[in-house]
Amino acid sequence: MPETAHDLLIQDLTVQGGVVMLLGAPDTGKTSFARRFLESAIAAGKQAAYIDADVGQTTVGPPACVGLKWVRERGDLETLEEADELRFVGSISPKHLVLQEVIATATLVDQVRGEADLIVIDTTGAVSGVTGQTLKFHKLELCRPDVLVALQRGSEIEPIIGMARRFFSADVRVLGVHPDVAPASPVERSALRAEKFARALAPPLHRWKVRPTVFAPSLPTGLDLERLHDVLVGVHDGRGRCLGLGLLKHEDGRLLVLTNVTDGMKGLRLASLRIDPETFDTSPVNLREVMFGLGDR
User: Fold this and answer.
1) Domain residues for 235?
2) Total-model pTM
């Protein structure tokens, strides 16, 4: 089978190493490119760190999180969904949480920089408008990739490509979409996301009573705790790491968290999502409205 431009670039970047960020709209094959890249790194005896910042369609760890997976041997590719580290973002869309997503990604890059021969950063498909461009600008700014691989069908990410070349030193490589990439429908994406949430919140679930003081952002005095029913939370240790996910429940005037995390829990971060515990479908939550009693629960 003849080598494609994707194959040739992967060969080149495997030798080069460093930090490589992948950019592209949905269904342009970023994750497929990342997997082939990681396979190449293993074959070359390289130690790779895969940072999955596609919070809506995660490969590593649950949605609403940025996940880190160390890929040192071929078996690691079979367990990519098992994150070695998580950082909580709290949304499946970066629309209102650009800061959280950028910081989550950058902290993981900083953690593995200097340890890995190769760092591969997968990103969301948000590439248009002010939100998409702002998100990618600040990821480039804080993650400081050596190479930006831009995958596009037409010219949909030319504004970000131009911005990257104008403001940053990353070597920008532009590729078309690989012919083997098969688009996923919105229904398929939602079903896969629900499956991943179900896995992250799988039994056995422990029920812990929680105090209002353990949250970030903190809960205002007098808040009707029922408004937090079924809101997703990130379970955190005392070192900035997310240990897993939990679901808030309001029962008999008490606020509980249901989680399969058993050790190390120090605090809970509120997500901008509510999870249906039966279907694991999501609905957006405006935390300002929840906190100050505006609008619907």
Assistant:
1) 201-292
2) 0.94
